[in-house]
Amino acid sequence: MSIDLKQFHQAFFDESYEGLDSMEQSLLALSDEDETDPELINTIFRAAHSIKGGSATLGFGEIASFTHVLETLLDEVREGQRKLTAESIDLLLQSCDALRAMVHCLEQETPIDVNDSKPLLDAFEAMLNDSGQSAVSEPQQKEVQKNLDDSDATVISSAQDAITQTFFSGDDGEQNDDHGEKRWKIVFKPEPQILLTGNEPLRIFRELESMGDLEVHAHTDQVPNFDQITLDECFIHWTLFLTSNVDQDEIKSAFDWVLDECDLDITLSESGDDDTVDTDDNVNTETRLQQDHINLDNRGDEITAEDDYGESASDDLEFVRASASVVAAKVIPEKTTAKKPEPSAAKSTSAKAISESKAIADKKVTAPESAQSSTTSIRVGIDKVDNLINLVGELVITQSMLSELGNNFDLEKLERLSHGLEQLKQNTRELQENVMRIRMLPISFAFNRFPRMIRDLSNKTGKKVDLIMSGEQTELDKTVMEQIGDPLVHLVRNAIDHGLEMPEERRAAGKNETGKIHLNAEHKGGNIVIKISDDGRGMDPEKIRAKAVEKGVIDAEAELSVAEIYDLIFEPGFSTAAEVSDLSGRGVGMDVVRRNIKALGGRIEIDSEVGRGTKIYVHLPLTLAILDGQLVRVGREVYIIPLVAIVESLQIKSELVNRVSGNMVLYRLREDNVPIIPIHKEFNIQADNTALDNALLVVVEGEGCKIGLLVDDLLAQQQVVIKSLETNYKRVDGISGATILGDGSVALILDIPGIITNASRSRRRNVSPRAA
Amino acid sequence: MARILIVDDSASMRNMVAATLQSAGHQIKDAADGQQALAVAKADRFDAVVTDLNMPVMNGIDLTKQLRAIPNYKYTPILLLTTESSMDKKSLGKTAGATGWLVKPFNPEKLLETIKKVLG
Amino acid sequence: MDAIIEVAEINRLDKNDISLEGIDFISGGNQYLTFRLCEEHYGVDILSVTEIRGWDEPTLIPNSPNYVKGVINLRGVIVPILDLRIRFQIGEASYTPTTVVIVLAVKNDRMKCTMGFVVDAVSDVLNANSQDIKSAPSFGGLVAPQYIQGLVNVGADVVTLLNVEQLLKLDDEGLHYE
């Protein structure tokens, strides 16, 4: 077999992360609810089940055995034999982490340390072995955790062995005692409806034939009269003689799928009475009994390994003994139980679709915190892909139309040609936009890790936390998303650790015991702004200042604004080991957070009020995002002004121009006086027109103030794809990025807030004489 | 070669089964749940169906029942792909009309052999 | 060393495609692409050369140093174009039909960067073993020593091998961010 299973590894990893994320979310949802939603349990079960199936097939034994235990437990929950308690949810959540770590190891091709997951496995085993089938009691669980080191290794390894055995026994144990040729007599009486399951007796015979010499006797005595024959029923039964060295099990395996639908006797035929095709009842019962024993023996290990509760062992025994009709009878009540979740499943379809899309969303970012796994694949909603396919389809039509035109071109077709080219332009633009959208993912990818984190933190600190998230659908480029995860985690940790007070303290301060953490994301002027706010104790600028002086971060005499003081907490060396707590002290300080955000071309701001809480704003560029832009021309250069920043464009009336304080030129725009900034002066380039009269002014707004940009010409408005200048160059003042225009040339995108800050700075500079 | 429909909610499992069968020259279509599979099956014809048991929206057993009710699929081999060795599930599948089952983890040779068997 | 430096004949296929006839790609030793800045010969590790393009007016970057000519679109990536003649203060920066842009890329743990460099002409591929490479004299010269990997004698000429990684760093002349 030339199939290299390795090619499926990445898909399995991706899928496992995804499954684990949806498992985690469902577990969190379960812990929030009083009623257990069967669909949530099903989702959790399916995730474990899929991971088990995949890992076992790909030979990832550690994961397979671990998920097997999970699955067994979850199956009991699903079947209503076990209740999920808060403790077991905690354990399951921990096992998500453990599995994630294992998958991560596989992905990195580093060995999995089974000892890491052993305490968990112990706890689960203990749960499963708890014959009361109620949840493990708290002390018991603690015990298990405590015994982590001296846990009974043999029990586990043997349990694992058993599991591994059931999983990896490709072929059922063959106990060929003697290899001599034997002559087997097989009496096969299918039930009439056997054909309805697509089972074809001939197929079975062919298989038997492959084992040795086969002799088939058909008994047609049961065949009704011709007019009573129905096509899909089988009235024939057979006696077969197989001369082969195979054993009884192998023969039986050929009938594996039809065991419930036939009478089957397999006996060693004595050389004496061989050719007699008899149907002696005595013989039949005897062999059937014999057969039962064999069945039981074979299923022995399966029963002990898989079904630790004795009940199903007897079920299996039942099954083996059962004739088809008994099975059918037994099935009926089960059918109803199996069916039960269906209506609710249908009802919750839409909800599930959402949670599934969230699960997809979650995947990329919820990697183990320690290592950032930047997976190279991306999951894209099917609608986005369908859109692309449609667009490509249109493109193909346009292309064939154009080549048709070109085949036999004369001037009369000119109009059709230009029409076709217009269409091509349209197609291409749409295609480009849609392709770019593939990289954009809702920020919920980054947010979805927080419910779990907050739950854990709240448990650890004893602080009560209510998490509110909004704007999760705000789209952000995948790369930015991957990079922003860790800084956000740190900020949220900080908010809980330093921001929120303990319940008593809150009560004493007249606040609700439960603190609030609010995460919000929104697009603002070509940026995405993520706000992390808490209603905790807030930050006291005086204290920060004092501490900064003490740490030598600033001079005691330094004059700082409140904003500048808040900014100090991002200075390296501000937070020291002495105050590093269990939560925030993970080796990264706020200085690293700021550095990471800056590296993304973003910035971070703090606003705080003592006793009321702190708000942290993270501004991030949409590095690869699409921006609605106004193209403007200055001399030979084309620049792009983000449409969101534009207040209006106007032609300057000289009577509204005022020169003030020597150097500043203001334009009266209704009530406002807007400073005029000639782009050519800012950028030191040539412009066609430097005079103000009748010139074009684009009034833009940013950082809370308005300025007017003097340009030569207003060109088209179009969506542009933002490209980074910093990839190969560096940040340029006044420029937020670049884009590629339709003709392949590069146009720079103006950084309006940057230009405004620059302008105000240079204005200040202009007051004092400039050096050189 | 045969046209085979693969139904599994796990894409990696679907891919593995598909690649295995494709390596033997079979034509493959796939679906992520029973409902999708049913739509695909109705719009097309298949010589065999390989389906997972546990799936969202519509599970493998219900899919089997529904398929059997379609004249085209009355005798089509339907194989259940399952990790559950519990016999209850198998017999449930059998009563629903499944031809047989394949136990996950499948090994590629065994899968091909089984498919060859049911295709006759 | 038996390589002869001569200006390769450059056929302009179209605006940005240039075929380099007369350049022999000989294996063995380290290979350097040599080029001319006025009358001086320079070389860069051939493995860092991603392509050679014709000169094309780039988009200006406001307030950039004079040797930064601007940025171009290189298959969807924004790549800055620097004029080595201006940067090293070697002769006049004129733009003639043989003026080309050598695109250099470095991708390692330390940096990942692609830039284009305007040169007067591409010359040849030079094979040089480490023993052929002499260290540069530490005096004089307009090219700062950190850019120079070494010198190689080729016939009567001297080829200055440049350190590409250093070349792609924008950290001289106060170019450093902030």
Could you give the topology of this structure?
The complex is a heterotrimer of chains A (772), B (120) and C (178).
Chain A: H1 9-32, H2 38-58, H3 61-78, H4 86-108, H5 114-129, H6 138-146, H7 153-168, E1 182-190, H8 201-209, E2 213-219, E3 237-244, H9 248-254, E4 262-268, H10 281-306, H11 310-321, H12 324-339, H13 341-347, H14 349-363, H15 382-407, H16 414-438, E5 440-442, H17 444-447, H18 450-461, E6 465-470, E7 475-477, H19 478-499, H20 503-508, E8 515-524, E9 527-534, H21 541-550, H22 562-567, H23 590-599, E10 603-609, E11 613-621, E12 626-634, E13 637-642, E14 646-651, E15 657-660, E16 664-669, E17 672-678, H24 679-683, E18 696-702, E19 705-711, E20 713-721, E21 735-740, E22 746-750, H25 752-767
Parallel strand pairs in A: 6-8, 13-22, 17-19
Antiparallel strand pairs in A: 1-3, 1-4, 2-3, 5-7, 8-9, 9-11, 10-11, 12-13, 12-20, 14-18, 15-16, 16-17, 18-19, 21-22
Chain B: E1 3-7, H1 11-23, E2 27-31, H2 34-43, E3 48-52, H3 60-68, E4 78-82, H4 87-96, E5 100-103, H5 108-119
Parallel strand pairs in B: 1-2, 1-3, 3-4, 4-5
Helix pairs in contact in B: 2-3
Chain C: E1 9-14, E2 17-21, E3 30-37, E4 40-45, E5 49-54, E6 68-74, E7 77-83, H1 84-87, E8 100-107, E9 112-119, E10 121-128, E11 148-154, E12 157-162, H2 164-167
Parallel strand pairs in C: 4-12, 7-9
Antiparallel strand pairs in C: 1-2, 3-4, 3-10, 5-8, 6-7, 8-9, 11-12
Helix content of chain C: under 10%
Reported CATH architecture of chain C? Beta Barrel
**Tally of helical segments of chain B:** 5
Which CATH C-level class of chain C is it?
Mainly Beta
Largest interface: A-B, 62 and 47 residues
| CATH topology category name of chain B | Rossmann fold
Structure notes:
The complex is a heterotrimer of chains A (772), B (120) and C (178). With 772 residues, chain A is α+β, with helices and mostly antiparallel strands. Chain A has five domains: 5-170 and 340-356, Four Helix Bundle (Hemerythrin (Met), subunit A), CATH 1.20.120.160; 182-306, ACT domain (Alpha-Beta Plaits); 382-438; 442-621, 2-Layer Sandwich (Heat Shock Protein 90), CATH 3.30.565.10; 626-767, CheA-289, Domain 4 (OB fold (Dihydrolipoamide Acetyltransferase, E2P), Beta Barrel), CATH 2.40.50.180. In chain A, the strands form five sheets. In chain A, strands 14-18-19-17-16-15 form a six-stranded mixed β-sheet. In chain A, helix 3 (61-78) runs parallel beside helix 5 (114-129), helix 10 packs antiparallel against helix 11 and helix 18 (450-461) runs parallel beside helix 19 (478-499). The radius of gyration of chain A is 37 Å and the shape is flat. Chain B has 120 residues and is of the alpha/beta class. Chain B has one domain (3-119): Rossmann fold (3-Layer(aba) Sandwich), CATH 3.40.50. Chain B has helices at residues 11-23, 34-43, 60-68, 87-96, 108-119; strands at 3-7, 27-31, 48-52, 78-82, 100-103. A five-stranded parallel β-sheet of chain B has the order 2-1-3-4-5, sandwiched between helices. In chain B, helix 3 (60-68) links the parallel strand 3 and strand 4 (78-82). Chain B is globular, with a radius of gyration of 13 Å. Chain C is mainly β and 178 residues long. Helix content of chain C is 4%, strand content 46%. Chain C has helices at 84-87, 164-167, and strands at residues 9-14, 17-21, 30-37, 40-45, 49-54, 68-74, 77-83, 100-107, 112-119, 121-128, 148-154, 157-162. At the A-B interface, helix 1, helix 2, helix 7, helix 8 and helix 11 of A face helix 1, helix 3, helix 4 and helix 5 of B.
